[in-house]
Specification:
Shape of chain A: globular
Oligomer: homodimer
Order of helices and strands of chain A: EHEHEHEHEHEEEHEHHHHH
Strand order of the largest sheet of chain A: 3-2-1-4-5-6
Number of helices of chain A: 11
Helix content of chain A: 40-55%
Chain lengths: 295, 295
């Protein structure tokens, strides 16, 4: 019987996953199915022969019962709602994963959303940008990007899934995303994920947004040499998504903002007091740290 | 008689200027001369046939008396010192320009540094990055970059230079940098330059540095999706140069830091108080502003 990959939510992420699967993963007898509320995205994907079959929201149960591996590419809280609503609709022994940028939200009421008879592996493909929608999706989007897979003692195995099966599924998952282009996979728990992502991703979006807000005028790019442009590109932000991400990870994000503001103040003080030698030492330390991070 | 371009300081900027001149500007009978204290950079540029003649610091007077158009590619205060020391050594009717990222420093004691008998046009090629030195220089470095030329009522015409001559020189300068690859030239005064650059360039370097300093560990890039990397690339900073730039533009930079911190605090408060609708409005405004800036 042929194996079917399913994608719920055919936006830039879901679309890119579909294209990466089509390009690098699926064999002749394998299929890609997609579910979306937007018929245009589905039509485009069908026309481009990226997906083999399209489902609208009314056909969700039929869609879910056909998918052996399901990517839920919805906003974080919509993913939680989707899981709750359909916990009994997944294909037996299938694998369900998400792409949410915040993971602790799954822990609040885990039993109510844990799929029944299907394996549940939380994941986070670390790719993104200022573009949105299926039309901007791209099969090479994930090349040389990071993927985070969650293993957390609070995420219990769904009923009907054995330890052995789960191990096999994790290994299948890792092979799959490697074929899709990801080149570094990190396994961690929900809290570590949210803490690290609160820094590398959310804090950066807060900082870029504050930078754009503090621009005196919009003609600023005549005076740009690349720094401002690179730093603020991510400020072309998807506002509902990032509002949700910021608020869902409130405590960890606020602690990163606090820490960042302290570091800004430290530099500010050195400039104010014209402590040239100390400022140079600090910048030198920054340079070394940042070069180390490249390795 | 052949026209000679001169470059003092053959680092990444001076080297890239030499290469862009060689590639796109100089004709058969024109020459490029360079002065540097580092014999290796001079040797490399001679071997690569980028420059026609190399001068060491002891030969400065001979060098200066040969150059029809001189790029002074030194650190800001070193440029001021160089101008003071050699104000009487420049070739009559030649054009002298700098590349300093801060301009008000020239106004403190302008008469003592204003070249004698040569035209003086302050400029700022808006290109830079984390690399340094002649070995990293590149003739395509300036493609599609901005150049700022200073016209300021406090920068008086040097003795012996007429208004008419100066206008012709500005126009020559604009043609020259356009050929070198720059595609947008903005003319402004010292104070506006320092205010704008304090924002687009210096504040970005402060923010990127504070971001790196606030990282908990150096393994952060396993959790990176590009935002942190793009935002902090410029933190691989040339610490002596940027210390000098920050302190030379202290007041304007501090005011930008203050304003930026207020914007961060505004976002922080919205997250703290979970004001979801207001946060989404703000991020939406940020998105629109940033998209406008691309135009």
């Amino acid at each position: 019987m042929s194996f079917t990959y399913g994608i719920t939510g055919l936006g830039i992420m879901g679309g890119s996953i579909a294209k990466a699967l089509k390009k690098n993963v699926v064999k002749n007898d394998e299929k890609i199915f997609a579910l979306d509320k937007n018929p245009d995205s589905l039509k485009a994907a069908l026309d481009q022969k990226i997906i083999d079959r399209a489902f609208n929201p009314e056909e969700t149960k039929e869609f879910l019962s056909s998918c052996d591996f399901l990517f839920i590419c919805l906003y974080p809280h919509t993913t939680v709602e989707f899981l709750k609503e359909h916990k009994n609709d997944f294909k037996t022994s299938s694998i369900i994963t998400d792409i949410s940028g915040v993971k602790s939200i799954y822990l609040n009421d885990y039993d109510s959303l844990c799929p029944c008879g299907a394996d549940f592996i939380l994941g986070h493909p670390m790719a993104g940008g200022e573009k949105e929608g299926y039309t901007n999706s791209n099969g090479d989007y994930f090349k040389n990007h990071n993927y985070i897979i969650i293993e957390d003692k609070n995420i219990k195995l769904p009923r009907g899934i054995t330890e052995e099966e789960h191990k096999k599924n994790i290994s299948f998952f890792q092979d799959l995303i490697t074929k899709m282009g990801f080149n570094k996979i990190t396994i961690t728990d929900c809290s570590t994920h949210d803490n690290k992502i609160g820094f590398t991703s959310q804090l950066c979006h807060v900082v870029a947004s504050a930078m754009v807000e503090s621009a005196e005028d919009r003609e600023i790019t005549s005076f740009g040499g690349g720094s401002f442009e690179d730093l603020t590109r991510i400020a072309m932000i998807n506002s509902p998504l990032w509002t949700e991400l910021f608020l869902s990870n409130k405590e960890k994000l606020l602690s990163h903002i606090e820490n960042f503001k302290n570091q800004i103040t430290k530099i500010e003080e050195l400039i104010k007091e014209e402590k040239s030698a100390e400022l140079e030492d600090l910048l030198n330390d920054v340079r070394k740290k940042r070069i180390d991070m490249q390795k």
